[in-house]
């Protein structure tokens, strides 16, 4: 088979080569004929030059003859002037001689007149011949130049074709060699394939025997164990739980999320558009702050003020639809019950558009009837009225298809499965139509705004309102374009997931069957989860017996242990109270010690040295009593150092001071450690928040790059198709160009023949002249 295909391909290439060779020979003959024609024209040009030279010589001879005749006439006139006075003197004597002279004069005059007429006629003929010769010469020269250029072009084409044919010959020879090598390899592969087919046939026989045995066994098991096959009936098959496609569910949820974002943008743009339109009615053509507006515009403004109650539910319905699509559900038309609510909200918005459309048209007509409206502004208003009608019609069309898509979740007989793809394609077409209508509205409203801004009565309030309306219209246009492209990109995904029912069914399954299926799916998921739940670790039997003995022995002494715990808790509370009491006593003792020390110092300064010993004894007694109280409160806080019976008060104060300073240092170090930990945790939290923001930005950039990549893929596919078409068009143009070249060659031959005939006729005329 491969060798036959190679031979057929080679024969086709040989036939194409023979055709190209025949065309090359024809082109060569045409070029040779053109060269011969150009040589003949050059010879004709030489002959014309020779005839022109002869005519110039004749002209020179005629001019010389004319000069001679002119001199002779002058001489005759001089003689006549001399003979006239002589004739007066001898009138009587020479009457006979005067008669003779008059006769000679008349003869000479006639001869001169004939010569002059002949000379004039010759001049005219010579001038006409010269002009005709120049015209023919210029025409022939131009034709010769064009023919030479065409011959050069034909020669270049012939050279290019010959080079192309040589390249094709070399390419064909290389292809022939490659094909021969390929044919040899294919023959080897064919031999190997034959051997493999024999082995495969043996394996097939073995497998057939094995599978036939298994089939008989499985049929016997099915007949014995399976009492009922529910896949034969579409109604029973709809109750079976389908395979869970998590990837498909995630994709559908992502698509619903994107659709929710587009609907939110569209709702925002519609709210802005209706609100700013209401503001514009209040200020143009009559400002409500200066004068009262018409009752029509008042009613229109009242209706526009209610736009939020019709537009906001669209976003809410889409949000409920998005929330109903989860990873655990099966997203098909029978289960998307929330699509019905979205369709109802869209129907209410269509009713709102139908209600405000007549008022909007009448308002535009009222603007056209005002004295400020120019002809250009009136034309823009008419275009906007047409656009508003189209916008309402597009929304009605879209609502019709959305209502059809919501039928399977409520009325299973309302939509046939075969019409599902056509409904989806019509939804995409409606969205594209909405985008086109919004582009026209944006274009016409921008022109209207520019015309109104140029009016002398245009206020800054009107200009800002027009800019706001124009920005909302642009947002609507962008949102409609994004939604249309999004739906057209994902329509294949929608068509692929028609329904979970059997393929042989002629209609969708009923919504109650879909609800039962979802309940069965939840039960199956719970059952699988219960099966996968790990069992708790069990205790060995011997260890359990030992624990039981311990438990029984501990229950007997449970009351005693409870009493001990209660007593220990009471002791702990008492000790805590005593601790607080002695801490207060220690603080009071410290304060008393400081006061006594100050009093002793003051007395030592005021009294004499004789009383120093008594005061010292008193101070020591007071100090010893205070120290004893403090030692009873907390011995660890105030250690005592004494030399004999009298303690050293200064060393005691230093120890207390050092203890509290160490405690303060320890607390400050703990505080600093806590502060450093809090700063560290704050820095970590800040870094994590920054990383989160960067991750979200990178996610957005990646999604944009994915969108750009998908757009580039579609653009490259379109460019590939266009390049293919352009190549096909170039081939057809080349064939047409070759046909036109042949036609031009035939026309040039005819022109050359006509030139030859005309040159022969001109030469005959010149000879006759």
UniProtKB/TrEMBL annotation:
Source organism, top-level taxon: Eukaryota
Protein's UniProt keywords contain ATP-binding: no
Primary residence: other
GO cellular-component term (any): early endosome
Protein name in UniProt: Protein phosphatase 1 regulatory subunit 21
Subcellular compartments: Early endosome
Molecular function as annotated in GO: RNA binding
Origin species: Heterocephalus glaber
Signal peptide range: none
Domain Protein phosphatase 1 regulatory subunit 21 N-terminal per the UniProt entry, residue ranges: 11-112
Keywords annotated in UniProt: Coiled coil, Endosome, RNA-binding
Coiled-coil stretches noted in the UniProt entry, renumbered to this chain: 3-72, 137-196, 558-592, 685-726
Gene: Ppp1r21
Annotated TM spans: none
Region Disordered, annotated ranges: 84-104, 743-769
């Amino acid at each position: 088979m491969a060798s036959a295909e190679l031979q057929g391909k080679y024969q086709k290439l040989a036939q194409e080569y023979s055709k190209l060779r025949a065309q090359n020979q024809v082109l060569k003959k045409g070029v040779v004929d053109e060269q011969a024609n150009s040589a003949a024209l050059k010879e004709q040009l030489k002959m014309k030059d020779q005839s022109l030279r002869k005519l110039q010589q004749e002209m020179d001879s005629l001019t010389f003859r004319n000069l001679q005749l002119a001199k002779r006439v002058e001489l005759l006139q001089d003689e006549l002037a001399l003979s006239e006075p002589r004739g007066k003197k001898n009138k009587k004597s020479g009457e006979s001689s005067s008669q003779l002279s008059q006769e000679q004069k008349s003869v000479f005059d006639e001869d001169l007149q004939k010569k002059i007429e002949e000379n004039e006629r010759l001049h005219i003929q010579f001038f006409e011949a010269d002009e005709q010769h120049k015209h023919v010469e210029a025409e022939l020269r131009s034709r010769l130049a064009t023919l030479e250029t065409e011959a050069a072009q034909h020669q270049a084409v012939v050279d290019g074709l010959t080079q192309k044919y040589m390249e094709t010959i070399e390419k064909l020879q290389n292809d022939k060699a490659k094909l021969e090598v390929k044919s040899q390899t294919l023959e080897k592969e064919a031999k190997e394939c034959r051997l493999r087919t024999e082995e495969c046939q043996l394996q097939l026989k073995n497998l057939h025997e094995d599978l036939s045995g298994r089939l008989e066994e499985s049929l016997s098991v099915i007949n014995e164990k399976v009492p009922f096959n529910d896949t034969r009936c579409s109604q029973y098959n709809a109750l079976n739980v389908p395979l869970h496609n998590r990837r498909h569910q995630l994709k559908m949820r992502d698509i619903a999320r994107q659709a929710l974002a587009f609907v939110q943008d569209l709702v925002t743009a519609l709210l802005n558009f209706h609100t700013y339109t209401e503001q514009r009615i209040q200020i143009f053509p009559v400002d409500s702050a200066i004068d009262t507006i018409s009752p029509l515009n008042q009613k229109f403004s009242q209706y526009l003020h209610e736009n939020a109650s019709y537009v906001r539910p669209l976003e809410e319905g889409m949000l409920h639809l998005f929330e109903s699509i989860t990873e655990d559900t099966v997203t098909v038309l029978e289960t998307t019950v929330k699509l019905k609510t979205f369709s109802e909200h869209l129907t209410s918005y269509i009713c709102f558009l139908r209600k405000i459309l007549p008022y909007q048209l009448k308002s535009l007509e009222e603007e056209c009837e005002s004295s400020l409206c120019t002809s250009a502004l009136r034309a823009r208003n008419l275009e906007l009225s047409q656009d508003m009608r189209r916008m309402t019609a597009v929304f009605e069309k879209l609502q019709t298809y959305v209502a059809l898509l919501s039928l399977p979740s409520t009325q299973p007989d309302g939509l046939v499965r075969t019409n599902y793809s056509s409904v989806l394609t019509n939804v995409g077409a409606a969205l594209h139509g909405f985008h086109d209508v919004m582009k026209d509205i944006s274009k016409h409203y921008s022109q209207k705004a520019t015309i109104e801004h140029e009016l002398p009565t245009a206020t800054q309030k009107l200009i800002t309102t027009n800019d706001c309306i124009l920005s909302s219209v642009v947002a609507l246009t962008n949102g409609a374009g994004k939604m249309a492209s999004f739906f057209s990109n994902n329509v294949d995904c929608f068509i692929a997931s028609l329904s979970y029912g059997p393929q042989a069914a002629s209609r969708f399954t009923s919504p109650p069957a879909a609800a039962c299926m979802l309940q069965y799916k939840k039960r199956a998921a719970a059952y699988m989860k219960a099966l996968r739940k790990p069992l708790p670790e069990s205790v060995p039997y011997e260890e359990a017996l030992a624990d039981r003995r311990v438990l029984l022995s501990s229950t007997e002494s449970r009351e005693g242990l409870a009493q001990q715990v209660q007593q220990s808790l009471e002791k702990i509370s008492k000790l805590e109270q005593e601790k607080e009491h002695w801490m207060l006593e220690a603080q009071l003792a410290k304060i008393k010690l400081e006061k006594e020390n100050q009093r002793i110092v003051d007395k030592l300064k005021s009294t004499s040295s004789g009383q120093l010993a008594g005061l010292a004894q008193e101070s020591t007694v007071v100090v010893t009593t205070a120290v004893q109280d403090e030692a009873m409160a907390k011995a660890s806080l105030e250690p005592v150092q004494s030399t004999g019976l009298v303690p050293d008060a200064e060393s005691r104060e230093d120890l207390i001071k050092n203890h509290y300073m160490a405690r303060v240092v320890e607390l400050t170090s703990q505080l600093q450690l806590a502060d450093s930990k809090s700063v560290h945790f704050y820095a970590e939290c800040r870094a994590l928040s920054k990383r989160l923001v960067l991750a979200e930005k990178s996610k957005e950039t990646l999604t944009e790059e994915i969108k750009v990549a998908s757009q580039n893929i579609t653009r490259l596919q379109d460019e590939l198709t266009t390049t293919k078409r352009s190549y096909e068009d170039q081939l057809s143009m080349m064939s047409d160009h070759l046909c036109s070249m042949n036609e031009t060659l035939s026309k040039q031959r005819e022109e050359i023949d006509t030139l030859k005939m005309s040159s022969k006729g001109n030469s005959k005329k010149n000879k006759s002249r």
